[in-house]
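User: Second chain of the day. Same drill as before.
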Amino acid sequence: MKKGLLLTLAGVLFGTLIFGLSSPALCQDAITLRLSSFVPPVHFMNAVIYKPWIEMIEKRTDGRLKIKVYSGGALGKAQAQYDMAVRGVADITWGILAYTPGRFPLTSVMELPFMSPSPEVGSRIVWRLYEKGLLKSEFNDIKLLALAMPPGMDLHTSKKLVKSLEDMKGMKIRTPSPMMGKLIKKWGAVPVAMPATEVYLSLERGVIDAIFIDPLTLMGIRGNEVTKYHTRVGISATVVFLAMNKNTWNRLPPDIQKVVDELTGEWWTADYHGKIATKAVVGTVEKLEKAGHTVYLLPPKEMKRWEESAAPAFDEWMQDMEGKGLPGIQVVKEALRLKAELTK
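Assistant: Same format as last time:
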């Protein structure tokens, strides 16, 4: 009796051991990666994009890969995010390439006026430029997970509504990129460079009068609390990156790497982030209107003036790139070809 019981227990233990050895979810400890986010927890990128994406990864890996978000710049400032991924200060970081001017010259093609028609289309353009090898040399020091385009930037003001190029004269306007800074200066305004995280206090204290920023980020930094007028322009967008430290990537098991690859790249940049952001803009504009803000859509004739005024930026950009020995003309031609192909 006792012998039979012992044999039964031994069989159960042996079966459990075999099952444990054959089940990665049970025999391997979960890997937890740190994702650095410089914006507040309520920001669109944290709440709407990263939270569900992390849940997808955990589900697809049976809980073997977990990602913890450190928001509000807990691990580093906005301008430091890319280098943090390079050095391994965080395992994954996201940020805005324009915060390090001159470091990603060819990728800045996407900042050119009206190059990105929507987050979805713009994101496909920039990712396909990367996949074609035209931008890869700028990201050799990290495992690039995604390049994406946020919604185009509108002009948000605190004291007056801007209806024309002339209305900007003399205003102090926050610029998110060197290219936009040149345009702001051309229009008779004063460009003031600063990251989005400093905008709220600068508007509140009168350091600046207006900002060029996309509607989603405006809400994410509570810029709607210190602005009243919103001129819909969609003139430019700054490229967003999602990067992983190379050593972190190399340490991941191949099957987990496969899941990460499937949930990043063009799927993440356009089908996930791009489509969600494109739809979210509509709801954001409605919220501003319901709150009593003035939302102004430029008439076609005035919009054409903005487009024509900004057009010389293309030639200037290409000349600058070619002068540095970079294929600026080739990159612009391919970007415009992709834009035409994707907007048919």
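Residues 5-27 have pLDDT under 50 and may be disordered.

User: Great, on to the next one.
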